[in-house]
Amino acid sequence: MVIAVNTRFLLKDVMEGVGYFMHENFRRLVNAHPEHQFIFIFDRPWDPRFIYGPNVTPVLAGPAARHPLLWKFWFDVKVPAILKKYKADVFVSCDGFCSLRTSVPQCLVLHDLAFLHFPEGNKKSHLWFYKKYTPAFLAKAASVATVSSFSKNDILKQYAVAENKINVVYSGVKEIFSPQSAETGKAVREQYTEGREFFLYTGAVHPRKNLLTLLKAFSLFKKRLQSGMKLVIAGRLAWKYESFVQSLKSYKYRNDVVLTGYLEEEELAKITGSAWALVYPSLLEGFGVPVLEAMKSDVPVITSEGSSMQEIAGDAALYANPSDPASLAEQLMRIYKDENLRRDLISKGQIAASHFSWDHTADLLWKTIVQACPELD
């Protein structure tokens, strides 16, 4: 059987959430199912490391689809032609989009509906596209995967979709995330924070990540405790980051805030495992992979209440109101002052993280693909 896959987010050096999800799942599925042929459809030249086995045929379908007009052209003109040429039995798309111009069964992965809840975090043209076509994509897909029960329930609430059409596959955590040695932690602190302990945020810098609230909370923490603690923000400047950068210029504690930019996996794992705590105040996530990465690294977590992160971490994290800097500052102070609490969260985090793996995610995703095309089984 022939499985075609939208692989336009497998990008060398700049992979983030969707790209990592695809990389971890499809390198497993390609090797687990050598009896099937995989057609990887790229919208720009591919890196050879993403060709996971001899049963993968990479196909370049330009131009690069990076704005709504080209999304529409790519999915409704280029993709159907490739599906027809290679006689695909199913098409898998992990970025929330699918083709409306093909009769080939499709498996759609929709991570969250953040665009509905926080529209200001999107370009107007993108927001228009998401709102107009997401209902059509959900209707067109033969099966749908999402990464948490939180997201599944949100999709069911917002759109008329049969519940049995949507499967929760969760996400996993990469094996590279693990507890770091004292020597590594010391080296990381010397490199990034002048030897000081630090709170860490990992992920892109854009409005939904709520980093202005984090700055306000860190300011309250510094004023009250007069601590030498630093705040490290590890991630690329993504979109609408200007207000954050401007705020930093006049921020009283700007010398205690470190921006690393985008980090490769190995370096990100080191800095994660060396943090005093991960602070992840995002307003909404389908899953919240950095939370899991921190718990896997024996690092306690402070994150937002009322989102998928609470489903993932359970009692292994501290929660704050993401719209209230004082609430977040209170949790920063708790994790800073209470060693027993910190040790307890680390222990609980080890247990919580053990429930998630990419092997399990890949199995669940495969079942969702088979749901779209039962002949694969």
- Give the beta-strand count: 13
Strand sequence of the main sheet, in spatial order? Answer: 3-2-1-4-5-6-7
End-to-end CA span: 10 Å
Count the domains.
2
CATH architecture of the largest domain: 3-Layer(aba) Sandwich
CATH C-level name of the largest domain: Alpha Beta
Helical content, roughly?
Answer: 40-55%
Task: Please count the helical segments.
Answer: 14
Could you give the order of the helices and strands?
EHEEHEEHHEHEHEHEHEHEHEHEHHH
According to CATH, the fold-level topology of the largest domain is Rossmann fold
Gyration radius, in Å: 21 Å
Inertia-based shape: globular
Query: DSSP strand (E) fraction?
Result: 5-15%
CATH homologous superfamily of the largest domain - what is it?
A: Glycogen Phosphorylase B
On the 0 to 100 scale, the average pLDDT is 94
Task: Decide which structural class fits the backbone.
Answer: alpha/beta
